[in-house]
Amino acid sequence: MTLTVAIIAPGNMGAAVGGRLTENKVNVLTSLAGRSEASTARAKAAGMTAVADAQLTESDFLLSIVPPGDALALAQRLAGVLGAANKKPVYVDCNALSPQTVERIIAVIAATGCPFVGAGIIGPPPKPGTANTKFYAAGPAAPDFARLNDYGLIVRVLAGPLTAASALKMSYAGITKGFTALGAAMILAATRGGSAEALKAELAESQPALLGFLTRQTPAMYSKAYRWVAEMEEISEFVGKDFPEHAMLDASARLYERIAADVEDEKREVGVMDKFLKS
Predict the structure, then answer these.
(1) Which of 123, 257, 238 is nearest to 181 (CA)?
(2) Dihedral through CA 34, CA 39, CA 45, CA 46, nearest 10?
(3) Order of strands across the sheet with 116-122?
(4) 8 A C-beta contact, residue 115 and residue 88
(5) Which of 271, 278, 163, 172 is nearest to 231 (CA)?
(6) Measured in Å, how far apart are the chain's first and last C-alpha atoms?
(7) What angle do CA 38, 70, 64 make, to 5 degrees?
(8) Half-sphere exposure of residue 244: CA atoms within 13 angstroms, side-chain side
């Protein structure tokens, strides 16, 4: 029988994952409710079939791939049709969420009778021929989800609680996106302080690998900053308010919020960072 996977939603990551699966002869369903024309075009290009919510339950696996702030609302939206369905797909939450948020989603899905997998994606949207996008998965149903290793995905099963993959994703993203935020903040501060040229020269001499990281990651961040706001807030919650470093991660969220607004408006700070990195 043909494997059927539902993916919500066909954003950049969701559509790319859908495309990888359709390339491997998987029937991929999605929902276009409330989605943009760009989402519709991505879904079509990936070979995904748009259906009503009730038909999503015909899938073997339902992958939630949405912005972090939308993950709980999606589970709540689908709870009715999942609870009423005779066939129970495995619900795989693939979002960048704190374990605390994952626990809230687990409670919603548990009431539907669907098996739950807590997952985290590390890597970019998959492209043909690449193998750098990995799904880390946890929970009793994770080995079943690992069947998708036979259909083009890379699924790695983790031991531990349902939230183990969430903890890994939060830790990894906290390092990579946290370093990017810190670098951006200090580039801007050095420029305000009149030491930008000296800072770049010193980084090139004593920290060339770090300068290379910032040169790659900072410009790539501009178009993603709006999405990273909620993710950094989730990472801050993961660290916990009992630890003062949670404020550092929340501050990173505020920086990304400011950069996202700058991208849409004056591009003053983006211009400062570009000048530093390209000079």
Answers:
(1) 257
(2) -80
(3) 49-50, 27-30, 4-8, 61-64, 90-93, 116-122, 134-138, 155-158
(4) yes
(5) 172
(6) 57
(7) 75
(8) 0
C-beta neighbour count of 134 within 10 angstroms: 15
CA-to-CA distance for 155 and 247, rounded, in angstroms? 33
Q: Would you call 5 helix, strand, or coil by DSSP?
A: strand
Residues 63, 7 contacting (CB under 8 angstroms): yes
| Nearest residue to 61 via CA among 181, 164, 149, 129 | 149
Ramachandran sector of residue 129 (left: φ over 0; alpha: ψ -120 to 50; beta: rest): left
Q: What fold, for 167-278?
A: N-(1-d-carboxylethyl)-l-norvaline Dehydrogenase; domain 2 (1.10.1040)
pLDDT in tens, the chain (279 residues): 799 999 999 999 999 999 999 999 999 999 998 889 999 999 999 999 999 999 999 999 999 999 999 999 999 999 999 999 999 999 999 999 999 999 999 999 999 999 999 999 999 999 988 999 999 999 999 999 999 999 999 999 999 999 999 999 999 999 999 999 999 999 999 999 999 999 999 999 999 999 999 999 999 999 999 999 999 999 999 999 999 999 999 999 999 999 999 999 989 999 999 999 997
Q: Which amino acid is at 96?
A: A
In the chain, what are the domain boundaries?
4-160, 167-278
- Count of C-beta atoms within a 10 Å radius of residue 126: 23
Alpha carbon separation from 86 to 5, 57, 83, 111 (Å, rounded) = 17, 9, 8, 14
CB 94 within 8 A of CB 65: yes
Domain over 4-160 is classified CATH 3.30.457.10 = no
